[in-house]
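In the laboratory, one determines a bound structure by crystallizing the protein with its ligand and collecting diffraction data. In a computational setting the workflow is compressed into a single prediction: the sequence and the ligand go in, and a structural description comes out. We illustrate the idea with uracil.
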Amino acid sequence: MKRNPNCDRCPLGKVCHTVCLWGEGNPSTNVMLIGEAPGYEEDRTGTPFIGQAGKLLEHVLRKLGVDREDLYITNVIKCRPPDNELPGKKELMACWQGCKQYLDAEIKEVQPKIIVVLGGTPLNLMTGMTGITKHEGMVVCHRVEGKQQIPIIAAFHPAYVLRAPGKEVRLAQALARAFKLGGIKMRINKTMEIYPYEIRA
Ligand code: URA
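The predicted complex, in structure-token form:
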């Protein structure tokens, strides 16, 4: 299966620019990061996590000494919701029914050893669990993929971290855990400030 630029499986495709935005990165990586949905910049450019939240994510990755190109980064919802406001529960579930097959295809193709869900929305849609604050930093469950059991780690969403000074460290710790379990080599930059974070300013 491939990205479907003509997708009409949910109403969001009618109101966004890049219809059905798939992830990008290293297709044979061990670690896949899964966010919520494209925002303005992502929709405009066709690249996931390229706006402010993406910049924060890259900042944290730099601190850990991991290149974003060594990972695969995608979203649960593939089209940008108007004004970046996710629809209510019922409509969101309808969108997820539409998008799920694309995410499943990405996971099948990449075969990650570890999945990181960034924020409460992918946590909920992928696992049925609620409460990111309660779960962040933990392996919350495993995704069964053929004979493989892929651990799913919850982490704060970078957009939340932008609004919550000091949470960069929690995001970095959750990612570091994923990289360790996934065998992604880190070259932690001990001198780099992780907080305060210049992009927020
Ligand atoms: N937020 C997300 O969840 N995904 C993106 O691609 C950008 C911002």
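The chain has a mean pLDDT of 94. Keep in mind that any predicted model is a hypothesis to be tested, not a measurement.
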